[in-house]
Each structure stands twice: as structure tokens, then as C-alpha cells.
């Protein structure tokens, strides 16, 4: 798939944390009100990410009517959010919390409403606090991707990063 994302030189391989979620199990984390993964979010993608071997993962998302751009197909921004969620979850296999620094999406085919989108994702490697990932999406045939993505995530100190915003957090009612 064509992309204009350029990986820097000097990316080092990274190693899965020994206590990371086992292959085949859902990577459970975060909070139930998250737009990307939360079951209690008023509006959300409700993506479940499953750990794969090494530093890989898979995920699925149902394309619901409210996600329409189109007409009849998913909005590009929704797909972008889905890639962000999938790729942002995989660094948990390193047991390192991250936020997105740079996200790049390549849209190859329209994705109809009602589809199930399947994602594959891997960590390419890292440089210091920078972690590089790539992902692709398909509708059932991995050899026929409908979109791809790359992202740079930055490792953060979780407490410090969100310290000024916790009083704004929304909780389940
Ligand atoms: C488990 C949950 C799954 C969640 C998935 C969803 C994830 C998200 O959507 S997170 C929300 C969206 N992202 C954000 O809100 C992040 C907002 N940005 C920030 O807070 C800061 O800019 C932050 C933390 C990314 C970086 O700031 P800071 O900690 O001061 O580090 P900083 O020194 O600027 O950058 C670190 C390195 O990354 C590089 N970098 C940072 N941003 C970029 C960028 N956009 N492009 C390229 N390089 C970048 C810097 O150049 C630096 O590189 P080097 O170490 O070689 O000098």
C-alpha cells in the first residue's frame, strides 16, 4: 500500500514485557469511558484489541451507521481514530504508557457501513521514548487491505501527563 510516512533511521528492536498480556487474550487496560475502547462511553468505537505473538495485535470494529461519512461509507476521521486506538494499545505489550505524537493514515478503498473491519498491528521498534508502529485494515481478506497506518507514540509518565486534567474526567453514571 502506498504511504508517504517516512521511518527514521536508527530504530532499535523492542522486547515484549515478560508479564505482558498473553497471545490470544484481550489487552485490558484503560477505562470504561474511553472513546476508543470503553464499554460505557456514550459514543465510542468499542474496539477490543487482542494480543498476538511478539509485539503484534489484532482488533475488530463494527462500522455502525453513526460512523457514516460517505454516503454509505465510514468517515475517514472515524477510521483514523480506530487506527489510533489499535496502535496506541499495542505498546502496552512493552508495559509502557504512551500518547500519540504523529498519526498517518493511507486510505485505499471505501469501507461500507455494516462492515466488520479487522486490524493487524505491530510495533516496528523504538528510539528512546519514541515508539513506531504500523497497522493495516481489511474486511476479511488480509491480502486485500482497505487502509493502512503508521504512528509515532511517545512514552509518558502517566500520573504527570494527566495530572492537570483528572478533575475534568467523566465517569460512568
Ligand atoms: C492504552 C490507551 C490507548 C490509547 C490510544 C489513543 C492514544 C491517543 O490518542 S493519546 C491523545 C493524543 N495525543 C496527545 O494528546 C499528545 C499531546 N502531546 C503531548 O502531550 C506532547 O507533545 C508529547 C507527550 C507527545 C511529547 O512531549 P514531551 O514529553 O515534552 O516530549 P518531546 O521532547 O517534545 O518529544 C519526545 C520526542 O518525540 C519527538 N516528537 C514529539 N512529537 C513528534 C511529532 N509529532 N512528530 C515527530 N516527532 C515528534 C520529539 O522530537 C522528541 O524526539 P527526540 O527525543 O529525538 O528529541
TrEMBL record:
Main location (coarse class): membrane
UniProt domain Thioesterase: residue ranges: 72-123
Pfam families: 4HBT
Top-level taxon of the source organism: Bacteria
EC number of the protein: 3.1.2.2
Alphabetical UniProt keywords: Apoptosis, Cell membrane, Cell projection, Cytoplasm, Fatty acid metabolism, Hydrolase, Lipid metabolism, Membrane, Transit peptide
InterPro entries documented for this protein: HotDog_dom_sf, THEM4/THEM5_acyl-CoA_thioest, Thioestr_dom
Any one Gene Ontology molecular-function term assigned to this protein's record: hydrolase activity
Keyword Lipid metabolism: yes
Localization annotation: Cell projection, Ruffle membrane; Cytoplasm; Membrane
Catalytic activity: (5Z,8Z,11Z,14Z)-eicosatetraenoyl-CoA + H2O = (5Z,8Z,11Z,14Z)-eicosatetraenoate + CoA + H(+); (9Z)-octadecenoyl-CoA + H2O = (9Z)-octadecenoate + CoA + H(+); tetradecanoyl-CoA + H2O = tetradecanoate + CoA + H(+); octanoyl-CoA + H2O = octanoate + CoA + H(+)
Topological category with respect to the lipid bilayer: Peripheral membrane protein
Family the entry assigns: Belongs to the THEM4/THEM5 thioesterase family.
Protein name: Acyl-coenzyme A thioesterase THEM4
